[in-house]
Every structure is written in structure tokens, then in C-alpha cells.
Write a structure and sequence with these properties.
By secondary structure, the protein is α+β, with helices and mostly antiparallel strands. It folds into 2 domains: 50 residues; 93 residues, no CATH class. Helices cover 46% and strands 25% of the residues. The strands form 2 sheets. It has a 4-stranded antiparallel sheet. Strands 5-6-7 form a 3-stranded antiparallel sheet. It is elongated. The protein starts with a strand and ends in a 7-residue tail after the last helix.
């Protein structure tokens, strides 16, 4: 098995986001002639998505990296590393109609307990891997479960005596 596997963010999804935001900005201009507040709110909100989409398009900093120790999700402004031993597994989840990979943490995993509770109550999952990578979601799920099976026992925290 490979020592490392990296999935970059999908440029096609970045282009789709860029096109969608640009379209809603244009609609905002049209609406602003009839309803100034709604039009400008649309322009500002979706206008903020344009530079984010451009950053996504040209940035190499958005990826999912799998290693023997765990996986790292990198976004534009954040990196999160999770050890295989802290996870029980993965499954396909949904937040409204958006499919993503749900992270199922081990019951004894203590980090970010409050955030995981909030996520669970709002989205039905403690953590998630977004569907933004240049690979089909089912393929990514299978690879995550394969690497978890291979490396989880090696990265599990040692049991304390007592």
C-alpha cells in the first residue's frame, strides 16, 4: 500500500461555484432596480463567493491527504489532522440534499467534544469530509475505509493500565 495518497480539490467544482456566484451577482443587479435591499444583499453575499472560488481554482492548498497516521483535510484557511485510531469508520451522510462523508468518531475520542455535539445535533454527524475532491464520493469512501482498516490499530492510543 502507498505511504501517502493526496486528493486535490476539484477545479470543476470551483468553476461551478464561480459561475453560480457570478450569476447570482448578475441577478442581484437586476433585482436591485426593483428592490434595492434584496438586490444589494444578493450582490454582496454572492460577490464574496467569487474570490473564494478563484482561490479554490488556483490554490494547491485544498486537499485531502491520507497517510499511515491518519488523514489531513486542508482548506483555504485551515488544516485538520485526524488519526485513524480516533475514528470508528466512515459513511455517506447528507446535510439537506448535499452528500458528504460522515466521520464516525470512537466513543472514547475526547477532542472537540462540544463542537462534535453541536455538529451532530445540527447535521446528524459529528464530523464530515466535504464532496469537493477530484474523485467520486463512493470511491473516496471506499479508500478511506480501506486505509482505516489498514492503519487504525497502528495509530490507536495506547490503553492505560488500571
Amino acid at each position: 500500500m502507498q505511504k501517502e495518497l493526496v486528493y486535490p480539490a476539484s477545479r470543476a467544482r470551483a468553476l461551478l461555484l464561480l459561475a453560480g456566484c457570478a450569476a447570482f451577482v448578475a441577478v442581484g443587479f437586476l433585482i436591485s432596480k426593483q428592490n434595492l435591499l434584496v438586490g444589494w444583499l444578493s450582490i454582496v453575499f454572492f460577490g464574496l463567493g467569487i474570490p473564494i472560488a478563484i482561490l479554490m481554482l488556483f490554490s494547491r492548498g485544498m486537499y485531502l491527504r491520507l497517510t499511515a497516521d491518519g488523514f489531513e483535510m486542508a482548506s483555504l484557511f485551515n488544516k485538520t489532522v485526524i488519526r485513524w485510531g480516533d475514528v470508528d469508520g466512515f459513511r455517506i451522510g447528507r446535510v439537506r440534499s448535499v452528500k458528504m462523508i460522515a466521520i464516525i468518531y470512537r466513543p472514547d475520542y475526547k477532542d472537540q467534544k462540544m463542537l462534535r455535539r453541536v455538529n451532530s445535533s445540527l447535521a446528524g454527524m459529528e464530523g464530515a469530509i466535504p464532496n469537493i475532491y477530484a474523485v467520486p464520493l463512493d470511491t473516496l469512501l471506499a479508500k478511506l475505509n480501506e486505509w482505516h482498516t489498514q492503519f487504525a490499530k497502528k495509530s490507536s492510543p495506547p490503553l492505560s493500565a488500571g
